[in-house]
Amino acid sequence: MTIIYAALLGLVQGVAEFLPISSSGHLALLENILGGSGLMELDSSAFFNIMLHLATLVAVCVAYWRDIADMLFELGDMAGDLVHRRSLSARGKPARKLIYMLILATVPLFAIAPFNDAIESLNAIPWFIGAALILTGTLLYIADRLPQGDKSVEDMTVLDALIIGLAQGLATMPGLSRSGTTIAAGMGRGLKRTFAVRFSFLMSLLSVTGAVILQVLDVLEQGIDTAMLPAYGVGMLVAGVTGYLSIRLLQSIVRKGRFGGFAYYCWVVGAVSIIVWFRLYA
Question: Whose CA is closest to 174, among 234, 206, 127, 111?
Answer without folding.
Answer: 127
